[in-house]
Amino acid sequence: MTITLYELTGRDTERPFSPHCWKTVMALAHKGLTYERSAVPFTEVPNVENGIGKTVPVLRDGEHVVSDSFDIALYLDEAYPDRPTLFGGEGGVALSRFIEAWSATQISATIFGALLLDIHSMLEPVDQDYFRRSREARLGKSLEDVVGASPDKVKELANRLDPLRLMLKRQPFIGGDQPLFADYIVFGILQWARICSPIQLLQPDDQVTAWFERCLDLHGGVGRSVAAAA
């Protein structure tokens, strides 16, 4: 069976940037599965697989179509139990639910504003128009105003990463000696920033930087298949 991953891209279809899609890329690599990648711009997301979801990633595996990165990871562990586990059991699923909520509120929400104009610049004009209208309606202000207010918020990131930093003093991955889907959740957000913007979020001597570099090297260096923004 052919596996197809629908993932978000901008003008350059070789630079997929969605944090949620990167979770799935890492999950597929973790499982050692081969797949085809289908580039989807913002305005085409509603047309993917007859509108199965409002967002990507979407995964088609033969007759099975699954949306949402977490649901895709659960599906992969169920469909391919003979391959390396993404969760290590129900405890790992519960851990990953917490990591997803923590990273969304403490990491993604902290850096989102700083990336808006960089993301906008990566898109085709029709997608730029959609992105600006939808984000400005959600945020209640212009992209420029949000980005202008973001530097102070980004400075908060170092402290917000303290729980991860302290844990990484004891083990190389969130999953322990080896990565699990919980690692890929956090990785996806930092990879999103790495691909979209040259902004420096982490210091070179940070425990989190060392962990992120280890994640970039995983699975044949799939995380490095897209260069960092210049």
Structure description:
The protein has helices at residues 19-31, 69-79, 90-121, 125-139, 143-148, 150-155, 157-160, 162-167, 181-196, 207-221, and strands spanning 3-8, 36-40, 58-61, 64-67. With 230 residues, the chain is of the alpha+beta class. It has 2 domains: 3-79, Glutaredoxin; 90-224, Up-down Bundle (Glutathione S-transferase Yfyf (Class Pi), Chain A, domain 2), CATH 1.20.1050. Helix 3 packs parallel to helix 9 (181-196). It starts with a strand and ends in a 9-residue tail after the last helix. InterPro entries: Glutathione-S-Trfase_C_sf (IPR036282), Glutathione_S-Trfase_N (IPR004045), GST_Omega/HSP26 (IPR050983), GST_UstS-like_C (IPR054416), Thioredoxin-like_sf (IPR036249). This is Glutathione S-transferase family protein. Pfam families: GST_C_7, GST_N_3.
* Proportion of residues in extended strands: 5-15%
Helix-strand category: alpha+beta
How would you classify the quaternary structure?
single chain
Number of helical segments with 4 or more residues? 10
Q: Determine the mean pLDDT.
A: 97
| CATH class division of the largest domain | Mainly Alpha
Entry keywords:
Glutathione S-transferase Yfyf (Class Pi), Chain A, domain 2; 230 residues; alpha+beta; GST_Omega/HSP26; four-stranded mixed β-sheet; 4 strands; Glutathione S-transferase family protein; Glutaredoxin; glutathione dehydrogenase (ascorbate) activity
